[in-house]
Amino acid sequence: NNSVEICGGIAYARGHIRSIAKVLNAKTPKSVIIDADQLVAEMEAAQTSDSRPIIDRLAENNVADKPKEKKRMKFGTLASISAAVLSIGFVAQIAVNNVSAVSTGINSVSVKSPTTQENTSTISVPAGVNLVLTGVNGHSWVGLTNADGASVFNGQIAFGQVVTINDPKMIKAVIGNAGAIKVNINGSDLGVAGAEGQVVRLDFDPNGQL
């Protein structure tokens, strides 16, 4: 029938012709050359008078993919997409504004640590006689005895030195330089014991100076 469809179409026929021509040219003398291009051209002319582009004919024989027509987007579709984008942007802007409004509406709350109340209560003084002697001017010899006459302190008190004596009943004091010693009995400040260089004798019980 002079048709190449049984061998896969015109594209395959071209390949067959060129392959056969190559084999024959290899076996025949050089003086006899088979022109494969001429045979292909004659085959194509005999097969069809189709004026379609070559790409369409190759695609028909599965040799090449036929170019697909580019789809153009309709104006209505573009308008719908634009409207959707604008709507999303509008909603996002409202959300941002609302968040900003909420943020500015919140008042900052400062948390203060609870302050420790100062303990203003008076320091409790042990029961009995509590005598505190402080050197404030030079130094002085001091002798202290209890109600039984036993010595509880015997020595020098220099400037800045503090001597504290406690007894449940009584303390008797002999101060060699009264102006150098300040006296505090049971939490009460009595000031210096006397004049500078003066020797004084003082007796104290739980109620204070006797």
Radius of gyration, taken over Cα atoms and rounded to an integer in Å:
63 Å
DSSP summary: helix tally: 4
CATH class category name of the domain at 129-209? Mainly Beta
Strand order of the largest sheet: 3-2-5-8-9
Let me know the largest β-sheet: 5 strands, antiparallel
Shape from CA axes?
A: rod-shaped
Strand content is 15-25%
Category by helix and strand content: alpha+beta
Topology as a string of helices (H) and strands (E) = HHHHEEEEEEEEE
Helix content: 25-40%
CATH-scheme architecture of the domain at 129-209: Sandwich
Low-confidence stretches: 102-123
Instruction: Give the number of DSSP strands.
Output: 9
CATH-derived topology of the domain at 129-209: Immunoglobulin-like
First CA to last CA: what distance? 157 Å
Mean pLDDT: 75
Describe this structure in words.
This protein has helices spanning 10-27, 36-47, 54-60, 75-105; strands at residues 129-135, 140-146, 151-157, 162-167, 171-175, 181-185, 188-192, 200-205, 208-209. By secondary structure, it is α+β, with helices and mostly antiparallel strands. Among the domains are: 5-60, no CATH class; 129-209, Immunoglobulin-like (Sandwich). The strands form two sheets. Strands 3-2-5-8-9 form a five-stranded antiparallel beta sheet, with no helix packed on it. Strands 4-1-6-7 form a four-stranded antiparallel beta sheet, with no helix packed on it. A hairpin with a 2-residue loop joins strand 8 (200-205) and strand 9 (208-209). Helix 1 (10-27) runs antiparallel to helix 2. It starts with 9 loop residues before the first helix and ends with a strand.
